[in-house]
Amino acid sequence: MKDILSGNEAIARGAWEAGVRLAAAYPGTPSTEILQNIADYKEIASQWSPNEKVATEVALGASIAGARSMAVMKHVGVNVAADPLFTASYTGVGGGFVLVTADDPAMHSSQNEQDNRNYARFAKIPMFEPSDSQEAKDLVKTAFEISEEFDTPVLFRTTTRISHSKSIVELGERVELPALTTLQKDVPKYTMLPGFAKLKHPKVEQRIVDLKERAETLPVNRIEMGDPAVGIIATGTVYQYAREAFPQASFLKLGMTYPLPRRMIEEFRSKVERLYVVEELDPFLEEMIYLMDVKIDGGKNLFSLCGELDPGALARGLTAGGATGAEPSLLVEPAVEAAGLPQRPPTFCPGCSHRGIFTVLKKLNVFVSGDIGCYTLGALPPISAMHACVCMGAGIGMAHGIARVMDAEGDIKNKAVAVIGDSTFFHSGVTGLMDTIWNRGASVTIILDNRTTAMTGGQQNPGSGNTLDGEPASMVDLPKLVEALGVRRVAHIDPYDLAQTERVIREELDASEPSVIIATAPCVLEFRIKNEPWTIDEELCTGCKRCLRVGCIALNLVEEGETKLVEIDPIQCNGCGVCAQMCKLDAILAPEPVKA
Amino acid sequence: MTHDSTTTNVLLSGVGGQGVILASYVLSQAAMAEGFDVKQSEVHGMSQRGGSVVSHLRFGARVASPIVSMGTADLLLSFEPLEALRYQHWLRPGGLLIYNAIKVNPSTVAAGLATYPDDIDARISAAWPNSRKVDATSLAEQAGTAKAANMVLVGAISSRLPFADDTWRAIIAKVVPPKTVEANMRAFELGRNA
Predict the structure, then answer these.
(1) Which CATH class is domain A535-589?
(2) Are A110 and A75 a contacting pair, CB within 8 Å?
(3) Is residue B128 assigned to a domain?
(4) Closest-CA residue in chain A for B58?
């Protein structure tokens, strides 16, 4: 049977077919759908974890118990998970253990475009990279076999174009592995005291030597001879682009990209006239090939270190580097995008509870130390009221750092406010707040509690009261949690009430001790909340544009000659009334109450 | 046809929430049902929040790249006029542009920071003389629900693709909510004949 699957769906299917028993993840684009699809396979215990470090530890525990297990995250999540990953490289595994990293070249939905292939070399573990959905599914199974054969975690690297591209996949059956009945105990293997770890390090180094040998014979690495005039070494989606751009060329197609098969690369070099290495982001393959003393005729000197490639860019780049045989239609320099068009950036949904908070923060002109989530869109015009955003949970610590060095006595514009969502707070904001309290800080933290992990599509979190599979679960009590950390000032606001929101934020900024403001309002998108639209009193509206400052796509300024008027699109409007609170002329009218 | 005579390149563009992804799904399933190799690529994530959305679809005997290179699309199906203008340079010379007439204001226009162009139709017909504008929302309302506008547009592109009428209908019946099958079929029909 075959189906059209995205790379993420195929990885989930591959995990199921490989007999995986446990999968844990924290959501993050472009990785999120992997666990969401795994959750449909009831044979796999699957769960969201509060962050990627915990997800990795949960998966490692299951591996130690003997189960095939998987941890899944976006590229920056591996930074969070790096601590257990690097030492899991020393412990090795019980059941096979695969960590999936979904990288985001071009930063479609990310704060950086780090090349996580470097983690394989850094942690000294093997790595696989699929080039379409069929390979994604098949390589997951290979990854588990290699993990067990070499007693090592395996890094499985996908990119946005693999994760979110769909292609036809032949489906297989699940491997049934024996039930786990006895928990094995092995102190030197899993307890990384220095004495035991010192015994492990040489084994890790030998493992890479052994893996290099294995890479020579693994069928996922293969030479595909065509015209010997041009040879191309590639992996992942870039391999497909290269096939498109140079259909007659010869290829060394790599499915395992760390460590590399030296003899196969030397053999390929000897068979082709000109040899090129094509890859997105870092010269990861190129540097290793350079160290093998294999001469190449072009690599990163022909392409940017930034962003994605595509077939056209490949055709033009390699042709500039002396390669022949590019598809002629791809050599044409594309027309420039129509200039001067209004941009269409993502924005707060109509009715979103973040709009009111950011409208007030902009008015107060405080420094907003932000975080990762939908609310990061508060940095974009017309609101433009977020002044820093670095990584998950960073905003609270940064606000504390700012407060420790700024002499902000009395002047609100020199004060910093941390703004963080509920899921991000659970992920890694808690420790930042603990630091602020412990180190006698006084900054204000606003927790935007919309009851979900909204930006990635509405996943459960420790405050949701249910799990990935929808089962009821214990719910973190946010006010009690922050009180337990030592916060004495905990305020609650209705983020749709601008006057109250402003008054409370001002009060807390004036206080001489740290405070937490909790704004609880469920995500209108996730919980499908739809309120009656508001309307404009055309007699009163002067088109002054004050309401437009809230940045809502339901509002539209109409100019006809001398007449200026704001219209409200009744389909888009979600009845939150935030724009009406901006209007000084009371020209925005609430819907008539429905008569019983 | 384009650089590869066996591959057809389609680009779909629109605004988050308009059903671009569902329409792409229908097209790719139809291609597979007709025995083609097919690849489709889209970007989720931040684009869901009212941002610009684009989906690449390629089918043929054997497809390598999942993305359509600029200047090589045979067809551009756009769910919104501004998003037609934004992606028109993806078309190959002589390619066909089909676009929805209904505007959706970007947040930059709603905020008064930019102006929605008032000459889109003229610019499109100057650059693409055989472009087709479809009033998908009106036709969808005629079919029973404005929400079926994406199936009107699927209908509009269907007559340009080598798939059987039954193939389209079988897939649409499978992917839309059961209660809306009839309205979506009517929407598809209206689009197909538009």
Answers:
(1) alpha beta
(2) yes
(3) yes
(4) A167
- Confidence (pLDDT) at A520: 96
Q: Which residue of B has its CA nearest to A348?
A: B49
Classified as helix, coil or strand, A409 is: coil
Q: What is the CATH number of domain A222-330?
A: 3.40.50.920
Query: Residue B85: its chain A contacts at CB < 8 A?
Result: 338, 341
Q: In angstroms, rounded to a whole number, what is the distance separating the alpha carbons of residues A457 and A475? A: 20
For residue A370, is pLDDT > 70? yes
**Residues of chain B with C-beta less than 8 angstroms from the C-beta of A345:** 51, 106-108
Nearest-CA distance A36 → chain B (Å): 15
Which amino acid is located at A352 in the chain? C
Q: What percentage of residues in chain B have a pLDDT greater than 90?
A: 82
Check CB contact of A342 with chain B, cutoff 8 Å: yes
* Containing structural domain, residue B23: 7-103+119-135+152-176
Reported pTM: 0.96
ipTM (interface pTM)? 0.93
Q: Which of residues 92-131 of A touch B (CB under 8 A)?
A: 108-109
- Please report whether residue B147 resides in a domain: no
Least Cα separation, residue A307 to chain B (angstroms): 14
Q: Does A594 touch chain B (CB under 8 A)?
A: no
Cross-sheet strand order for the sheet of A367-369: A367-369, A416-421, A444-449, A515-520, A489-493
User: Which CATH number describes the domain made up of A354-520?
Assistant: 3.40.50.970
Query: Into which CATH architecture does domain A2-217 fall?
Result: 3-Layer(aba) Sandwich (3.40)
Task: Return mean pLDDT, chain A.
Answer: 96
Domain membership flag for residue B108 = no
What pLDDT sits at residue A171?
97
Note whether residue B158 is domain-resident.
yes
Q: Tell whether the torsion through CA atoms of A56, A58, A60 and A62 is positive or negative.
A: negative
User: Tell me, what CATH number does B70's domain have?
Assistant: 3.40.920.10
Closest CA to A441 of A508, A370, A386, A373: A508
Indicate the helix (H) or strand (E) that contains A23.
strand A22-25
Among the partner residues B51, B64, B86, nearest to A244 by beta-carbon distance: B64
For A380, counting Cβ atoms within 10 Å of its Cβ (0-12 exposed, 13-18 middle, 19+ buried), the class is buried
Q: Do B16 and A330 touch (CB under 8 A)?
A: no
The two tokens of residue A246 are 């140079």
Residue A132 with chain B: CB contacts under 8 Å = 39, 66
pLDDT score recorded for residue A345: 87
pLDDT value at position B6?
Answer: 79
**Domain limits, CATH 3.40.50.920, in chain A:** 222-330
Which of A108, A168, A377 has the CB atom closest to B32's CB atom?
A168
Distance from CA of A548 to the nearest CA of B (A): 5
